[in-house]
């Protein structure tokens, strides 16, 4: 408004000066003689030096004045370039009305007008002095008390004025901003108006070319408008049409064309009321090759805009905005057609508050990245904003995309000082599978096609910028027959502190996994080393304390219940403890750790499982039950590294087990002994379909793992016909083993072997397991076996010889005794003959 007032004052002053000049010129023949008085008058009004090259008068058919080569000096400190220049200034007045003291001025023509506007590095402009003159103390006093000084409205003095209009041709305006290091040049400036009379609309046309430097942008502007000026200073405009076309290296588009149309603009400044019944906006652009959009078309329509300056209220009953475009290059959308509608917008200017009855957005998107190549969605809400109270609200939010429907409410406080917000989100029950299939989204293969048929969720979220905290409360997620509930929170965003407590009643993950493929050939294990990437810096920065409880879980062959997983982390040290689950008829307890506080990640694991069916566990986890039996299993392992090979090589710890009634699968010790026995006898055994396993009634084992090598500290087993011990090692890195199993045959007629091993009773048979850990080669130490057999036979023959010698000696002894007895008897008989 100050600019408008200033323009009116300058216009009025100019007209008054021109009227005065005409009056002087009427009285003289050569107006150049009075050039000094004119320039003095201008200097008094503006404080600037006015230079006029030549002045000429014409008297017929109109009284006219022409000024050639006019210059108005610049403000001090802004250089020698004139503030204003004009090659020619023409103005005329009808002669006959002058006789009746009426002034009918012809059009004011300015040819070759140049206006130089500047701002220095301190922010001062080269027209500040003109504004100061216009707002001086004398003007202020007169404006507040016109009657006391006998002053009148300047426009009242021109009540009988008829002005033929303004005609500016070949104008130029230059704007230099030293603060922003920016320059704008307006050239080919044309401005013209129709005849100006109070209370009557007159046309205004303006066109120009603009050149902007830093950044480089060129623009062609055309403005047409009709305006009306009242004697009391009120004015109004209508039929405003603005068109602009821009291009330039700084613009990512070419041929940017924008237009603005305002059929009517009512400016009741006396009532401080502005009414704009309709505003139409149009923007069209063609994108350059490196711009994501090939074409953009934006159409806007605003209706019944009203501004009440007294009450500081602005209303916009309805606004529609439609944006269409075509993508190009890597832009994910090929086409979009989006619509925005705002109803009942009201702005409280003094309170800096805005509210709407409704906001509606419609999205119509097409592109290869979209499911089914297209997506349509609608968003509705009722927003409000109050900057004075620092509050914002987004109520009645509803997002709809096909069968998907999400309802939400958002409230925020202290949005400028310390933003805090609360939100509630509700995902209505949705057949997610059907919805995704309608969008042509291919789901991962699942064994059960009835999954994802019912999905729903509810959650409350709290955000506090000052505390750097996000809280998730009352979380409820329904997934088919499963229900997840709980809460979570995150604070200290730079170094996240995470806490959560989640409970899942039950879930059958097998329904969501692909069907087990048993017919596929087993692929050989890859020899390539596996990198185990960890976000170590993030893990060091996080603090975690959370629990997850699961009532029952099905995954592959596992069906654990009463699962508790507790995760804690601080300063790069992560611990799963306590972690337990009821599984395989026992309770499995696990303590696992990850330490990334040092240079190399450290891992640890402790497992305690009493009365566990080892075969079922191995079958469930490894799909290989090479060891079966029931008993306790305890492990205490540590390792470190970033690759799988490093983890194997740095593996250390202990493993112990106490099993009964089990078997070691993969080799049949009894069959191996049979084969060895047959070789001793020179026989060949027939083929057998007996399961390759070695049964045991008790197995005690202790393994010590050092740098990836498992050494058997002790291993003893009781089999139905033998007692087993073992020694050796298994290299986990190379997955090779070399173990010697000593099997001592005992007398038994039950179990594997039975009576056929009775003749081997007492023998200790060495069995060598060597090669791949999964399928080792089994061999017997035949030399040792032959040596044991020979020693047994030699000892047996030796004992038989000793026994025979003893028997012979006993028999001989009896003969000698009998012979001695007989000789003694005979001698006694001879004695008694005397």
TrEMBL record:
Question: Which segments cross the bilayer?
Answer: 7-29
Keyword Transmembrane helix listed: yes
Q: Which organism is it from?
A: Thiomicrorhabdus heinhorstiae
* InterPro entries, A to Z: AsmA, AsmA-related
UniProt feature coiled coil, ranges: 791-826
Keyword Iron-sulfur attributed: no
Q: What is this protein called?
A: AsmA family protein
Q: What keywords are annotated for this sequence in UniProt?
A: Coiled coil, Membrane, Transmembrane, Transmembrane helix
Q: Which domain of life is it from?
A: Bacteria
Outline the extent of the AsmA domain. Answer: 1-216, 226-713
């Amino acid at each position: 408004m100050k600019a408008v007032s200033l323009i009116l004052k300058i216009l009025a002053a100019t007209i008054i000066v021109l009227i005065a000049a005409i009056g002087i010129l009427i009285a003289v023949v050569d107006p150049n003689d009075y050039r000094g008085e004119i320039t003095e008058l201008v200097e008094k009004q503006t404080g600037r030096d006015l230079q006029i090259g030549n002045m000429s008068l014409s008297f017929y058919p109109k009284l006219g004045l022409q000024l050639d080569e006019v210059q108005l000096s610049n403000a001090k400190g802004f250089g020698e370039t004139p503030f204003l220049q004009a090659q020619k200034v023409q103005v005329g007045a009808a002669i006959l009305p002058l006789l009746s003291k009426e002034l009918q001025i012809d059009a004011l023509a300015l040819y070759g007008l140049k206006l130089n506007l500047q701002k220095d590095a301190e922010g001062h402009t080269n027209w500040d002095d003109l504004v100061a003159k216009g707002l001086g103390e004398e003007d202020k006093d007169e404006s507040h008390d016109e009657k006391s000084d006998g002053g009148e409205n300047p426009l009242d003095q021109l009540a009988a004025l008829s002005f033929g209009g303004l005609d500016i041709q070949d104008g130029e305006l230059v704007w230099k901003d030293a603060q922003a290091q920016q320059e704008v040049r307006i050239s080919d400036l044309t401005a013209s108006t129709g005849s100006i009379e109070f209370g009557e609309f007159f046309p205004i046309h303006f066109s120009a070319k603009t050149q902007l430097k830093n950044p480089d942008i060129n623009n062609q502007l055309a403005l047409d408008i009709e305006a009306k000026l009242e004697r009391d200073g009120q004015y109004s405009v209508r039929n405003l049409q603005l068109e602009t076309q821009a291009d330039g290296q700084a613009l990512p588009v070419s041929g940017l064309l924008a237009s603005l149309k305002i059929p009517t603009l009512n400016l009741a400044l006396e009532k401080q009321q502005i009414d704009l019944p309709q505003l139409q906006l149009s923007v069209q652009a063609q994108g350059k090759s490196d711009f994501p959009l090939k074409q953009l078309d934006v159409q806007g329509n605003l209706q019944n805009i009203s501004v009440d300056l007294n009450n500081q209220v602005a209303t916009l009953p309805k606004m529609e905005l439609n944006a269409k475009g075509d993508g190009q290059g890597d832009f994910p959308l090929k086409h979009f057609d989006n619509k925005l509608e705002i109803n009942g917008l009201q702005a409280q200017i003094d309170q800096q508050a805005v509210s709407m009855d409704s906001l509606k957005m419609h999205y119509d998107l097409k592109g290869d990245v979209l499911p089914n190549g297209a997506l349509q969605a609608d968003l509705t809400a009722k927003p409000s904003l109050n900057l004075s109270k620092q509050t914002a609200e987004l109520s009645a939010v509803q997002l709809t995309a096909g069968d998907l429907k999400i309802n939400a409410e958002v409230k925020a406080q202290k949005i400028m000082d310390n933003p805090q917000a609360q939100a509630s989100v509700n995902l209505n029950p949705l057949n997610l599978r059907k919805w995704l299939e309608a969008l042509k989204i291919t789901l991962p293969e699942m064994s059960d096609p009835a999954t994802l048929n019912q999905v729903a969720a509810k959650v409350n979220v709290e955000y506090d910028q000052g505390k750097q905290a996000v809280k998730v409360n009352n979380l409820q997620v329904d997934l088919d027959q499963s229900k997840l509930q709980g809460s979570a929170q995150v604070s200290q965003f730079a170094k996240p502190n995470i806490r959560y407590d989640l409970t899942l009643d039950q879930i059958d993950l097998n329904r969501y996994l692909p069907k087990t493929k048993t017919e596929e050939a087993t692929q050989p294990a890859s020899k390539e080393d596996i990198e185990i990437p960890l976000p170590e810096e993030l893990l060091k920065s996080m603090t975690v304390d959370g629990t997850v409880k699961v009532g029952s879980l099905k995954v592959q062959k596992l069906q654990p219940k009463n699962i508790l997983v507790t995760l804690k982390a601080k300063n790069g040290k992560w611990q799963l403890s306590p972690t337990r689950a009821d599984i395989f008829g026992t309770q499995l307890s696990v303590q696992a750790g990850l330490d990334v506080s040092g240079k190399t990640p450290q891992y640890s694991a402790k497992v305690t499982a009493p009365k566990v069916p080892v075969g079922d566990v191995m079958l469930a986890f490894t799909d290989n039950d090479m060891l079966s039996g029931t008993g306790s299993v305890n492990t205490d392992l540590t390792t470190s590294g970033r690759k799988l090979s490093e983890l194997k090589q740095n593996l250390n710890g202990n493993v112990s087990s106490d099993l009964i009634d089990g078997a070691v699968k993969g080799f049949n010790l009894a069959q191996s002994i049979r084969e060895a026995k047959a070789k001793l006898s020179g026989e060949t055994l027939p083929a057998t379909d007996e399961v390759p396993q070695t049964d045991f009634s008790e197995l005690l084992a202790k393994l010590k793992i050092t740098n990836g090598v498992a050494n058997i500290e002790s291993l003893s087993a009781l089999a139905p016909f033998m007692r087993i011990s073992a020694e050796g090692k298994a290299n986990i890195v190379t997955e090779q083993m070399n173990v010697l199993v000593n099997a001592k045959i005992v007398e038994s007629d039950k179990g594997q072997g039975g009576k056929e091993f009775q003749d081997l009773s007492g023998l200790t048979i060495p069995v060598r397991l060597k090669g791949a850990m999964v399928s080792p080669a089994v061999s017997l130490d035949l030399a040792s076996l032959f040596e044991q057999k020979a020693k047994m036979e030699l000892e047996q023959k030796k004992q038989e010889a000793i026994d025979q010698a003893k028997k012979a000696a006993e028999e001989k002894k009896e003969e000698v005794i009998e012979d001695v007895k007989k000789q003694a008897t005979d001698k006694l008989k001879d004695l008694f003959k005397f």
